[in-house]
Amino acid sequence: MTEGGARATAGGAMAPIDTGTGPVVVLVHGQPGAGGDWAALADLLAADHRVLAPDRPGWGSDARGAMGIAANAETLEELLEAAGVDGPVTVVGHSLGGGIALALALKHPQRVGALVLVGSVGVAESLSGFDRLLAVPLLGNGILRAMVATLRRVLIAATRFAEGHPGARVANIVPTLPTVQAAIGTDGRPIVGRSRQSFLVEQRALLAETPELERGLCRIAVPTAVVSGASDHVVPVSAARSLAVRVPGAELVVIEGGHLLPFDEPQKIAEVVRRYSALASGLRDGRQQRGTPGA
Description:
Blueprint: E1 17-19, E2 24-28, H1 39-45, E3 50-53, H2 69-82, E4 89-94, H3 96-107, E5 112-118, H4 129-134, H5 139-158, H6 166-173, H7 178-183, H8 193-216, E6 224-229, H9 237-246, E7 251-255, H10 261-264, H11 266-285
């Protein structure tokens, strides 16, 4: 196990995170993405938790092909077994990673002690018309190429903003995120090859598997926080509210910000994770009934 934070490879890319000691927290990234997307949150939690943030199949250092939500949950269970993790853990999932966290809780309920779902999928309301277009063969591929090319142009334009302009902050921070690095090559060309294929595979799985995932939400039996950015336009607050209503006893937490809360507000996410990790520890020690904080 690596102590003191995320590891960096010789090329500067973030390697899978395994840091700290204490109750285990697992961080599941979205798409496109990498385990290193969680570096800021992992650093905050590592003082009193063991934090695992793997690259999922199809992304980062995981050479396996991309797969669906349920299959991702199985690989996560295998990773926890290989890492020597016993008992229930707190699972934090962002966006599509939230769907994987839910699937893990449904397929391996003994493994999950608490859930923190950030900008998470899981209900039909979280899927937009754009999501459905991206899942269409050929059409989705063309849309993705155009979307990432546009993102690159926007980032280039943002570098011309004055230092105090909000756009300058975006230009400085966004290109350093592993998520964006997964979408835009170091030579500036739009997403190609493996990364694009991984995105499209997961997008199609998202549409195909969401109905079954939603039907299972009533069986989630662990403390659950549904965290939403007040200005999230990818998975809006209305979708988060719908998810919280369907998960028994779930708490809806709305934070100022958009869809990228793990990057923008790691301190606030860490506060929620610590509350729910304490609940998971209580369940593990047999001292506490299942439920949300204050319930």
